[in-house]
Specification:
The chain is of the alpha/beta class. The protein is 40% helix and 21% strand. The structure holds S-adenosylmethionine.
């Protein structure tokens, strides 16, 4: 039997929780910027560890954390309890259409955050249509998608063939193509801002946040960069050749002389994009 390509997020709850925790300050900052006076209800779609839902709690009267995976929702529930955040939780699928989505959310929302989830939809444009339909008139959708993944390594690290980082990114792209083929995804051959426009939003814009940590990385920033690499090597392993897999194994092994953690030339450069749009009032 062939191996399933789509990630099973129930197996990654620890990673999702860790991301929510690590990005807590960032989520708080973004939530403060996104909430407008008069907002009453917000939703975190594909909430994962619940990082944004927790950040929005207390800023509006009700926040719904929505995800398709019961184990992920349980993890988000535990994180919210730990943070003392009062959230509602909804199990649902962004591919299930407008009515199911609105019912799961308990009605329209003024602010919707969808972080790295819409690219998992079978029909991304249809899913965006459903999300927009679940917005109250004047409500906003904030879509965290795209950007540029973390670049950490010099081109030649002296282990394996130079260009390891570029081939890791290419493997991620191949994995996504295979996942889309596996679930019969509808192609969306245009960018996120065009997709928001087609979904009927106005005032579309993109906020790009540049993570700029020059070499040398030390302490927490070094750990974060290594964890980021390790996670991606794990997810994309089936799309790397044997030589690259062996090189990554050595580089990510703290027992190895070539462990990346011993280097002083790692950097963390990344762009995180948030695409925003507003549902017209009428
Ligand atoms: C890459 S994680 C992102 C988690 C979090 N939003 C973040 O940015 O860190 C994707 C999340 O979306 C959920 N998900 C995947 N497909 C979904 C779908 N069709 N409908 C709803 N949630 C989905 C997964 O269970 C997972 O929690």
């Amino acid at each position: 039997m062939s191996k399933q390509i789509a990630l099973d997020y129930a197996e990654h709850t620890a990673w999702l929780l860790d991301s929510a925790l690590k990005d807590a300050e960032r989520y708080r900052r973004i939530a403060a910027d996104l909430v407008e006076p008069g907002d009453r209800r917000a939703a975190d779609i594909g909430c994962g560890g619940g990082g944004m839902a927790v950040a929005l709690a207390g800023r509006v009267a009700q926040v719904v954390a929505f995800d398709s995976d019961p184990a992920v929702l349980d993890a988000a529930r535990a994180y919210a309890a730990q943070c003392g955040a009062d959230l509602a939780f909804a199990l649902g699928d962004i591919d299930s259409g407008t009515d199911a989505l609105i019912a799961a959310l308990g009605g329209p929302v003024d602010l919707m955050w969808a972080g790295h989830v819409v690219h998992h939809a079978v029909d991304q444009q249809a899913a965006l249509g459903a999300l927009v339909s679940a917005l109250a008139p004047g409500g906003r959708l904030a879509l965290a998608e795209g950007g540029i993944g973390a670049r950490v390594l010099p081109w030649d690290v002296g282990v394996g063939r130079p260009g390891l980082q570029a081939r890791l990114e290419a493997a991620g792209s191949e994995r996504m193509i295979a996942e889309n083929r596996e679930r019969g995804a509808v192609p969306m051959p245009y960018g996120w801002t065009a997709a928001l426009e087609r979904a009927g939003l106005t005032e579309i814009r993109t906020l790009n946040e540049f993570i700029d940590r020059p070499a040398p990385l030390t302490g927490g920033t070094l750990n974060e960069a290594l964890e980021n690499l390790e996670a991606r090597v794990g997810w994309f392993a089936d799309f790397l050749d044997e030589d690259d897999k062996a090189a990554w194994k050595t580089l990510l092994d703290p027992e190895s002389q070539d462990w990346l953690g011993r280097r002083h030339d790692l950097h963390h450069l990344e762009v995180r994009s948030i695409h925003l749009g507003r549902r017209p009032e009428a």
